[in-house]
Amino acid sequence: MSAAAKSGHPTSAMSAADLAAVLVDGYLRFDFDDPKSPANDRLVFSKGHASTLLYAIYRAAGVVSEEDILEYRTLGSMLEGHPTPAIPWVDVATGSLGQGLPIGVGMALAAKHLERLPSRVWVLCGDSEMAEGSMWEAFEHAAHFGLDNLTAIIDVNRLGQRGETMVGWDLETYVARAEAFGWSAIALDGHDLDAIDAALAQATSTSGRPTVLVARTTKGKGVAAVENVNGYHGKPLDDADAAIAELGGVTDIRIEVAKPDAAVSEEPARGTLELPRYELGTEVATRKAYGDALAALGAARPDVVALDGEVSNSTFAETFAKAHPERYFEMYIAEQQLVAAAVGLQAVGWRPFASTFAAFLSRAYDFVRMAAISRATFSLCGSHAGVSIGEDGPSQMALEDIASLRAIHGSTVLHPCDANQTAKLVAAMAETEGISYLRTLRPATPVLYSPDEEFAIGGCRVLRSSESDEVTLIGAGITVHEALKAADVLAQEDIAARVIDLYSIKPIDGETLRVAAEATAGRLVTVEDHWPEGGVGDAVLAALAEMDEPPHLIKLAVRELPKSGKPEELLARAGIDAEHIAAAARQLVAKSAQTA
Amino acid sequence: MSAAAKSGHPTSAMSAADLAAVLVDGYLRFDFDDPKSPANDRLVFSKGHASTLLYAIYRAAGVVSEEDILEYRTLGSMLEGHPTPAIPWVDVATGSLGQGLPIGVGMALAAKHLERLPSRVWVLCGDSEMAEGSMWEAFEHAAHFGLDNLTAIIDVNRLGQRGETMVGWDLETYVARAEAFGWSAIALDGHDLDAIDAALAQATSTSGRPTVLVARTTKGKGVAAVENVNGYHGKPLDDADAAIAELGGVTDIRIEVAKPDAAVSEEPARGTLELPRYELGTEVATRKAYGDALAALGAARPDVVALDGEVSNSTFAETFAKAHPERYFEMYIAEQQLVAAAVGLQAVGWRPFASTFAAFLSRAYDFVRMAAISRATFSLCGSHAGVSIGEDGPSQMALEDIASLRAIHGSTVLHPCDANQTAKLVAAMAETEGISYLRTLRPATPVLYSPDEEFAIGGCRVLRSSESDEVTLIGAGITVHEALKAADVLAQEDIAARVIDLYSIKPIDGETLRVAAEATAGRLVTVEDHWPEGGVGDAVLAALAEMDEPPHLIKLAVRELPKSGKPEELLARAGIDAEHIAAAARQLVAKSAQTA
After folding, report:
1. What sign for the dihedral angle of Cα B15, B19, B24, B28?
2. Closest residue of B to A130, CA-based?
3. Any residues with CB less than 8 A from the CB of B484 and at least 6 apart, and which?
4. Model ipTM over 0.90
5. CA distance B269 to chain A (A)
6. Do B396 and A129 touch (CB under 8 A)?
7. Is the CB of residue A124 less than 8 Å from the CB of residue A16?
8. What residues of A act catalytically?
9. Which of A94, A379, B145, B283 is the most exposed place for a label (fewest CB within 10 A)?
């Protein structure tokens, strides 16, 4: 395959081939005709660059043809350089190392604690990726949750892309680490088929904790020219024909992969969703509404699960946890594992909501990036957005989350300003494909909307509007309330301002923005509790870039490093409070007057 | 302090107070009058929320007043909710857990392997943050590098924000884990002053490996109402006066913090920078030019150090490693530790360049975010940007890096298209404050610029220009070459196109863009090998938003999930090749013609 493609990682596949062969022939239970069945075992190649090995398994199982195999890495083939769910038997994309095992933890959690199915999760790991901290998050969580249905196989071939790993072939070090993290660990020769068989048997019969096979292997096994030689990572073999001859010549091995016992229970029926209702004029934090709405959603939808990174009393995920403890997972302060578990849970049919402080979602950004390539559907909630959190200071303030999460393929980015709106958006997220993100606020904010108002993803809400509007003020979250105050101030000066609550930042309601821009002579002020780059202002500009007369836009955003202080002091210092909004509006109106 | 501020984490400080007192009184060597001296020990509060303890140390050392202390968390006080370098004795911001120890590894690397100074690094860690994988990256790397000058102190108070940790008071589990990762580990009672003294003495006399104190402590120690009681995290005490009385009444303890032996060597002289030179018309990958230029920079500047995440033969950091092995650190596949080490190295006066695939920098995004709050100055290089990498597929393609790294406070984002330009930008980065990011390409690209041309950060280059230009094409990196081809095609149709190489995306050359927009009737096409959100197109829109006549902009970007394929196939499929650029330009010109 690699020779035909002139690229790929054959030596990384060759080291793990014996391990995979015994696993697939004797232990894996998988129905290729019904790959999404929760009764199936899951097979995750955490070392996704060994894709040729995975595809060789598919060939041996008879589900792809010789021709398919030879189209490896060509445009249009589902057999890409690293596995993705473009392949029906792949659950999640891998290729960013250190992700397959924590995702496997999510899958194993579902089988063990939600579905109580006998299915197992098998994860093939590289030894180089054991340097990723996310692997140790997975080790700790898997043991904590008693995931004896999870088996990790570490292909200790000693050589990374550029040279030897820190641990080399010192299997006992891996064993000691795994045991200290609560796993059963078996050191073995990864080319001794009987030893592999015995170790896999032991893994399946160990209860109460997960098992790891620490397998000493040889990179490039079977071809003398590359066996255990540094410098052959990620390169096709120089002479593939000679290598095939050395490996025993062309063969056409077929294996019968065992199918699981079916016996899948019916999906429980959904109930009616009864969202929380908040009284107009009261003050409620959107983060609290998130918790209330999520608990309500959990009551109506038995497939909804929630996870949090040890801050559930701040994000209010605890409201769900109290209502539905059997569907709540505490992931502690391990945001990579938090998001990875959500990816694993959704891969086997659950609908996860994962929350932490919005600032700390940045810890799991690579996991979110890869989840999009996995075509994953789940929701993130980040609380404590922006300078409005106040005294805790900049380390706790998310000011880059809108930008970074807009730049995730197919994502949805929502930022409500009131509790009823939050509740409606939580319900809408649960019906939305892809990765949806809800940004919530620490402080309580006035309830602006009736509990009966509807809020669609991709919409916005015009809060103030008249025929004499001269300028449009666009905010989201806390800045909607500042924009309303600014409109009041401007009204006293006989400047009528349209006010838009841009609660759906992606997708964005370009049409309503366009109408507002046209109605107010192209004068727009955007205001956001976020850095200037990639947030609300840039989203509005992008939405209107192809207008016949693009708008004049003043973008108010946080430009200096914030400090500790009171929320209102910090909004003022950042230049995103009502006073600064009104000043920007005046500037636009005056400028046009001058021009005219 | 917390009572006065009405917020803060007093119970998290109380658990570690005895540990800190013995450390500061007997072991820390720090000259408060010369805090940046490399002879100083470094003290890092990885559990940054225990800031009141750190500030109490400052009070005991006599460097802040009673009045300062009582302004904790108020706007304008340097004593913020979590420590930042606004305080002269703080090297790095903490408050996102799991970062202090990996940053301490960087500081200890400098002292041990670069400066060969007897200074030590002390890191106070929370037990909750031991769930962060980044802590285990730090454990592995510290042992790998033999950092016996590093001591971690884990304040095992058992209780996190919301409840008990996974490990609780099981000190032996922490000890086993630390030992399996190669550390010397000492379990002790964290309130037994003699035991603390003995453990710290043992840490200072252990050679060849780092030491961790695993200290059993009581959260809220000393105040019965909150001692070891869940639910008091992040809350001021209910009755501070009673608590103070219970703790022995108001005292005014002074300690004399020992100063280090000075004996700092002179900074070595800088040499003349001799950048690599590439011949016009040849083809050289910008990633290769990065390595060449970095090696040249290393020869001229003895403070430059390089780090890479086990892909130095792809990023070409290996060129530096071969030229200056004593200033190169292999960080293996642990991107969080990679960036954290850079933060630690720069905090003690070095000038780090850290590289990996641009896609995998997303793994360290929270570390970059926090580094900006640390006012850190260092450079990142991300190779293998965009779909132009080809066959490896989407997991290896950075398509969100411009957006995410633009949204870092004070960052610089550069994306060269040719080798000579890359070399000049590497040199410029080394003179640039803050976090600078260089995005490089996998494929070789034509050398467009003479080695004598200069490229300033914040500039751009007009590659084609005439008085009859009807449209402006703006690219960066690989798309500059596509834009040039598109201009050739358009020229054959008598459409003159201005072509701009926007190699500096942040800061951006708004003036040149404005001139181009005015010269070409506001017709702009931006083209980027990146998602549409937050990249080149959005940066251009933002730069021109306040023009009197904002431009009409068509933004070409990657909108569908890419696949494996040949680079040119993928550029075409994404709609960012010459053909699509020419089509967009024609559309803009035709539209204006219609309107006219």
Report:
1. negative
2. B333
3. B463, B464, B499
4. yes
5. 33
6. no
7. yes
8. 335
9. B283
Q: Which among A502, A479, A494 is positioned nearest to A421, based on CA atoms?
A: A502
Tokens of A306: 């929630």
Question: Is A554's CB within 8 Å of B564's CB?
Answer: no
Q: Identify all chain B residues contacting A141, using CB atoms and an 8 Å cutoff.
A: 166
Name the packing angle between helices A193-205 and A17-26 (round to 10°): 50
pLDDT tens by residue, chain B, 596 residues? 999 999 999 999 999 999 999 999 999 999 999 999 999 999 999 999 999 999 999 999 999 999 999 999 999 999 999 999 999 999 999 999 999 999 999 999 999 999 888 899 999 999 999 999 999 999 999 999 999 999 999 999 999 999 999 999 999 999 999 999 999 999 999 999 999 999 999 999 999 999 999 999 999 999 999 999 999 999 999 999 999 999 999 988 999 999 998 766 677 899 999 999 999 999 999 999 999 999 999 999 999 999 999 999 999 999 999 999 999 999 999 999 999 999 999 999 999 999 999 999 999 999 999 999 999 999 999 999 999 999 999 999 999 999 999 999 999 999 999 999 999 999 999 999 999 999 999 999 999 999 999 999 999 999 999 999 999 999 999 999 999 999 999 999 999 999 999 999 999 999 999 999 999 999 999 999 999 999 999 999 999 998 988 899 999 999 999 999 999 999 999 999 999 999 999 999 998 777 65
CA distance B504 to chain A (A): 15
CB atoms A533 and B137 under 8 Å: no
Asked if A365 and B365 come within 8 Å (Cβ–Cβ), the reply is yes
For A214, list phi and psi in degrees, rounded to 5.
-100, 95
- Kind of pairing, strands B328-330 and A283-285? unpaired
What type of residue sits at position A421?
A: Q
Closest CA in chain B for residue A573: B75
Do residues A458 and A508 make contact, with C-beta atoms less than 8 angstroms apart? yes
Q: Do A565 and B74 touch (CB under 8 A)?
A: yes
* Residue environment code for B376-401, b if the CB has 16+ CB neighbours within 10 A, otherwise e: bbbbbbbbbbbbbbbbbbbbbbbbbb
* Cα gap B577→B482, rounded to integer Å: 5
User: Which residues in chain A are contacts of B318 at CB distance < 8 A?
Assistant: 162
Phi-psi sector, B32: left (phi>0), alpha (psi -120 to 50), beta: alpha
Q: Which residues of B touch A564 (CB under 8 A)?
A: 73-75, 77, 80-81
Give the residue among B567, B135, B152, B561 at the shortest CA–CA distance from A332: B135
**A393, B81: Cβ pair inside 8 Å?**
yes
From B564's Cα to the closest Cα of chain A, the distance in A is: 5
Q: Kindly determine whether residue A134 and residue B131, on different chains, have CB atoms separated by under 8 Å.
A: no
Nearest to B177 among A180, A311, A532 (CB): A180
**A414 by DSSP, 3-state: which?**
strand
For the annotated catalytic residues of B, the residue numbers are 335
